[in-house]
Amino acid sequence: MDSYPYYTAYVATVIIAVLLVCRRIRPQVYLSLPPGPRPWPIIGNLLDFPSAAPWTTFDRLGKTYGDVIHMRVMGHSVVVLMSVQAISDLLDKRSSIYSDRIRSIFLCDLVEAGWAMVLQGYTDSWRRSRRVFRQYFNRDVAPKFQEIQREETQAFLLRLHRSPDEVQGLVRHLFSSMIMRIMYGIKISEQNDPYVAIAEEVMKGFSEAGQPGRFYVDFIPFLRYIPTWFPGALFHKRAASLKPVFNAMVNKPFNVVKDSIVSGSTIPSVVLSMLEGIHDGTRREEDEMAVKSSAASAYAGGADTTRSAIQLFLLAMVLYPDVQRRAQAELQSIVGSNRMPAFADRPSLPYVQALILEILRWQPVAPLSMPHSTSSSDTYRGYYIPKGAIVIGNAWSILHDPQHYPNPFSFNPERFLKNGRLDSDVLSPTVVCFGFGRRICPGQFFALDSLYIIVSSILQLFDISHKIDECGQQIAVDVRLTSGLISSTEPFACSFKLRSAAAEALFSSLPD
């Protein structure tokens, strides 16, 4: 009888130990998932993934449920993060857990685009490709491309003056020209260049497929096996149309460089330097694939995101002429009338820099991050985040948070200035708009250089305004954006006019 209390204590200790182990192994038994809308049976929250501008829907849900919300789609957990704090805590500080990538069945299996860095998991192949890319586009190396950026920008200005009504296509051509010269040493043709068409079609495919819920096959894998004639199987036809274009994207310009090495007619380029740095050995094939992947990713992604930002800049200048005049006044005071802006002028042009930051914030071209995935389960703020959960950062919500940006829907570059200088206390959109954690865009410094030289050069020469119709009336312009992984402006009309006699003389001095 005397041993009974000891036996009871022993049993109680064992039970407590087992419960603690179970809690450690399966915390979901004790922790709830983050809050979110109530799911429907079977399909879960599939209907909460609208086909148009899902970032605004997520933002509205965030106002109800908080900055970390959970949804379930066909058995998959989806977690959307809508604050700098949540993204910093998870995607940045715990990037070892959140750096994996949800495998897109549509793009990887049906289109066979698994070579793209944005689609690869956190694997040796991805790390190799990213290391190669960063080697040539980091903060210290990016400035060596500035001469090509300047030359291509001035060529764009000449085309713009000749064909102002074709501005949308000319902007697309500009970035394709920059990327192709830098990456492959290829100078593209003035009109109807196949490389421009390939990049455009590929980015449409990426933007379309990268939007959560766009193709149900990514949530319901067995749909890949249904025949093409089956109702609702249009994704098969879309994949078939994209497959040869994606193949051309990764192989066609790369093979031009390889052939030039064989023929002895090489032109300096990043890909050439990358290939020359590869040593023969058992990993040569993997190293060449890393070069091919990083080059094609720059070819597609860099051209499309920066192009979208420039189109937003043009739209903003039409809608906010006072902002345009103030930026031009700053250029006049620093650069003068007799030369084009240079990269060395950038530190002395805080308003132009603030204007670029406001463009990136006002309507972010990548409103949602590419989906991340958890490689193991995690807990955050007392909530359970399961292994394999899809995790999405909502950049749009952060960049329209009134706590960071008062009156967030107004276009106001001055929000980034204090006493005539850039205000370091204001959250820079560059912290958000280029992605998060280990998945942050490695080409961000090249993109910012491109935006600066193009924006400042256009403002130096041209007044941008409403286009006048044949009846003498202004053609109305409003903010209408496309929906997808990359968000851009719908086509709009605007007018370009050389600002003054001094601008005409400066324009005439540009090399043809």
UniProtKB/TrEMBL annotation:
Coiled coil ranges: none
Pathway the protein acts in: Secondary metabolite biosynthesis
Q: Which cofactor does it need?
A: heme
Q: Quick one: where is this thing mainly located?
A: membrane
The residues that cross the membrane are: 6-22
Q: Please report the record's description of how this protein sits within the membrane.
A: Single-pass membrane protein
The keyword Metal-binding is annotated on this UniProt entry = yes
Q: What CDD domains does the annotation carry? A: CYP64-like
List, alphabetically, the Pfam families matched. Answer: p450
Q: Which Gene3D superfamilies match?
A: Cytochrome P450
What does the UniProt entry say about where the protein is found?
A: Membrane
**PROSITE patterns reported for this sequence:** CYTOCHROME_P450
Which key words are in the record? Heme, Iron, Membrane, Metal-binding, Monooxygenase, Oxidoreductase, Transmembrane, Transmembrane helix
Family membership noted in the UniProt record: Belongs to the cytochrome P450 family.
**Protein's name in the database:** Cytochrome P450
Species, as recorded: Somion occarium
